Amino acid sequence: MKIDPTLKIAPATTVATEERTRSAKQQTENSGAQTRADVQLSPLAAQLKNIEASLETTETVDSARVAEIKRSIAEGRFEVNAEKVADRLIDATREFMRAQKQ
To answer: Do 83 and 89 form a contact (C-beta atoms < 8 A)?
Structure first.
């Protein structure tokens, strides 16, 4: 493949300068026509915002319970109830399957 030396390519700085000039010109043109958009949120959106704010302050992990379990494990007193774990796993799987059907 041979390179064509007659092809003129503008340096990147020239292209960037031209783009900035074009962008500034468009902004100047658009500033003359002022537009206004009014947005109204539903009461449900406000309620959702309140719920989100309350969740931010709510502790997601029970630190006391975690510390208690860590102590139990360290002292060798922690026992796993296999039936309870299996039942909860089955319940979680059923709930997951129901959610997938919807």
So the answer is: no
